[in-house]
Amino acid sequence: MLIFLPLERLSFQHKQKIFRQEFLIDLLYYFLNSLLPKLLLVLPLSILAWAAHRLEPIGIYAGVSTLSVGTRLLLAILVGEFGTYWGHRWMHELPVLWRFHAIHHSAKEMDWLVNTRAHPLDMFFTRLCGLLPLYLMGLAQPTANTGDIVPLLYVVVGTIWSFFVHANVRWRFGWLERLIASPAFHHWHHTNDDPAHFDKNYAAIFPWVDKVFGTFYLPKHQWPSQYGIDDSVAPSLVGQLLHPLIQPKSNSKSYVYVDEQKM
Ligand SMILES: [Zn+2]
Ligand SMILES: [Zn+2]
After folding, report:
1. Which residues contact 186 (CB under 8 A, 6 or more apart)?
2. Are 206 and 198 in contact (CB under 8 A)?
């Protein structure tokens, strides 16, 4: 709040209230998602770390362990980005996962706090997809007695950047926006203007990953004028947590687009 509230006041793109309608509920998500997804990750990541350590050809582990923490962190951010990209894309393309991810996209106004507005199982799944390649490639090497600082730093860097790209901040980075994600890049991921621009910009930090997989969309000076989804979600936190479980059918934006094209 100390960083983003002044920043959004000085450099806002959309004129909106700081304490907008869903501010309180998103604050509750902040506390819930600071804890629950991490607790859920303990067991699968422990099993993964153990299995990767046993099955991995020992050469990879030994080779990677000689790299400095800085180099391993840079490689982790790079490798993790591909896992995050596909985890996020599956969230949009598989209807069963979209039911969970729809909560994040239901925000009608964008600001830094929208970052925390997500179903805990959505956070769990995308985080798992990002961390999985780190363990498989030996970039995270916990031993019997100590953890590894690289996955921790990877999560911290990713979290800070994730708050920034949701922020209501009008800064544009010119050509650099193709290399590093900006608020405009991620705001276009949340657009509800034109179905032709839905399901773009899945990357968390590196937009060129979207370029590689054909999902990049970032006009030079424009911003979306509307955010959110057409599906309605419950107004309460409990209702939203139950939304994916009780709502039998909820279509991804991409499916809506296909249907419209067919029509
Ligand atoms: Zn999304
Ligand atoms: Zn988002």
Report:
1. 165, 166, 201
2. no
Is 50 within the bounds of a domain? Answer: yes
What residues does 191 pair with on adjacent strands?
Answer: 227
Question: 143 vs 39, 146, 170, 183, CA distance in Å?
Answer: 19, 5, 44, 38
- pLDDT computed for residue 144 by the predictor: 56
> Cα of 248 to ligand 2 centre, how many Å?
24
Please write the tens of the pLDDT for every residue from 50-67.
Answer: 887 777 766 777 788 888
CA distance linking residue 6 with residue 216, whole number of Å: 30
Rounded to an integer, what distance in angstroms lies between the CA atom of residue 183 and that of residue 160? 12
Name the nearest CA neighbour of 201 among 211, 233, 249, 37. Answer: 211
Q: What is the pLDDT of residues 236-260, one digit of tens each?
A: 999 999 988 885 554 555 444 333 4
Q: Please indicate, yes or no, if residue 147 is contained in any of the structural domains.
A: yes
Whether residue 1 lies inside any domain: the answer is no
User: Which range is most confident: 68-72, 153-157, 202-206?
Assistant: 202-206
CA 229 to ligand 2 centroid distance, Å? 12
Q: What is the number of domains present in the chain?
A: 1
Question: What gap in Å lies between CA 101 and CA 117, rounded to an integer?
Answer: 10
Residue 14 lies in a domain: no
Domain span including residue 93: 21-262
Ligand in closest contact with the CA of 200? 1
Tens of pLDDT, residue by residue over 43-52, are: 998 888 888 7
CA of 36 to the centre of ligand 1 (A): 20
